[in-house]
Amino acid sequence: MAKFYNTEFKEALREIAQRVAHFNSPYDRVRIVEWTRRLAGIRDDTIDEAKNRNDYIQLLKIMTRGGRLHGVFLKCPPESDIPPLAEAMANFLSDQCPDLPRAGPVEPIVSRQTPDGCAYIAFRRIPEKGVLCYMAVSPDGLKFEESESENEERDELNEMKMD
């Protein structure tokens, strides 16, 4: 499986290398080179590390196809470990929208809602596969209906607290 991820990574690097020269901004070209070097330096000892590296490189490849960098790629790559892409994107969004709380390390299921209820983000790590991420934004606020089982669980917890 690691061989598959390495092949995928190398093919993405080749495509990015062909497209980087077409960027007008020298700043963007430097960022692309910094990110590709940093990602190439990530060890692929485990499938999770290789998958995380490939998530970033695939997103960078898509952005180079579009001719413009966005999100986490606007800044230098971190010197320390690169967090999972979902965590990095959630933190990028919280930097842009101060009402959103910052995400910590990816938990099995992480969901956050702004205090005013206008934005919601949820993501879940799928072992050996990647991350499932959902984001919703509405100027009128978001309302979530609770399922029957959630209502029952909440009622049971309230009864336990009262006893």
Task: Based on the model shown, name its key terms.
163 residues; three-stranded antiparallel β-sheet; alpha+beta; 2 domains; 13% strand; globular; 50% helix; single chain; 5 helices; 3 strands
Give the topology:
Elements: H1 2-20, H2 26-40, H3 47-66, H4 85-96, E1 109-113, E2 119-126, E3 130-137, H5 148-162
Antiparallel strand pairs: 1-2, 2-3
Helix pairs in contact: 1-3, 2-3
Largest sheet: 3 strands, antiparallel
Shape: globular
Helix share bin: 40-55%
How many distinct beta strands?
3
Average the pLDDT over all residues and give the rounded result: 80
Rg is 19 Å
Cα-to-Cα separation, first versus last residue: 53 Å
Query: How do the strands line up in the largest sheet?
Result: 1-2-3
How many distinct folded domains? 2
Number of helices: 5
Structural class: alpha+beta
Order of helices and strands: HHHHEEEH
Strand percentage: 5-15%
Uncertain stretches: none
Explain this structure to me?
Strand 2 and strand 3 form a beta hairpin. This protein is an alpha+beta fold. The protein has a three-stranded antiparallel β-sheet, covered by helices on one side. Helix 1 packs parallel to helix 3 and helix 2 packs antiparallel against helix 3. It starts with a helix and ends with a helix. The protein is globular, with a radius of gyration of 19 Å. The protein has two domains: 80 residues, no CATH class; 81 residues, no CATH class. It contains five helices and three strands; from the N terminus they run ααααβββα. It is 50% helix and 13% strand.
